[in-house]
Amino acid sequence: MELATQPLKPRANAPYLWRLIATGLSFALFGIGGLCLRVLVFPLLALLPGDTLTHRRRARATVSRLFWLFVQFMYRSGVLTYEVEGVERLGRPGQMIIANHPSLIDVVVLIAFIRDANCVVKQSLWDNPCMRGPIRAAQYISNSGSMDMLDEAADALREGQTLIVFPEGTRTTPGKAPEFHRGAAAIALRGARLVTPVVISVEPTTLTKAEPWYRIPSRRFHFRLRVGEDIDPQAFAAQGSAPIASRKLNDYLHQHFMKELALDERTGT
What we know:
Layout: H1 16-46, H2 52-76, E1 80-85, E2 95-99, H3 106-112, E3 117-122, H4 132-137, E4 141-143, H5 147-158, E5 162-165, H6 183-191, E6 194-203, E7 221-227, H7 234-237, H8 242-267
Parallel strand pairs: 1-7, 2-5, 2-6, 3-4, 3-5
Antiparallel strand pairs: 6-7
């Protein structure tokens, strides 16, 4: 899979009407693609030989590749430009990827560049007719908020899976600072070999919380994903009891993201 580690050269800004049409086509393609995966692709993949692990890897690789093609469609149709820095350091065994969540397509872009990744997804998506096929075939983890979810996520990391988590739990409210829940830190302390922060910025903002897809910005938006330095969760585990360590790690992550997002604002990226 081609990896974008340098910014793609921006093209001339597409007309507003075309970008609106292209955005609608993107979402239609995403929905139809999800249904096709559910009723056609994954049932056929299930017939191929292999154990449970092989089927899971095959399903995740399929989702990753199709998400990558979806991002390429949005780029080439004039909806967005994108820039990915340090993506080659994602996808390591036992790695917990923690990202902020400014837009609807954050998880799509992340999974597009990681061939075999697990992900904690919203409970509501498990019943979404377009999404539940890929989610269940790839064996993603439901964000039910229960202790079972924390145990399942920690177990996945201990097995050597790569796990993507958005500690906000939902998209960032426009104009407000991200708020991190402590569950992500608790999972990291229980099972992660390393924690890698990924800072996501979208300029101009679009596809934010409670914002309809058709409210597009005046120009094509730029999606930037930056992979930060690895964090050793055991350095925090040694600082006290589990609740104290979880709070300290969560505070550290929150401060890191606030600093990096403020830097993006000052530099205009």
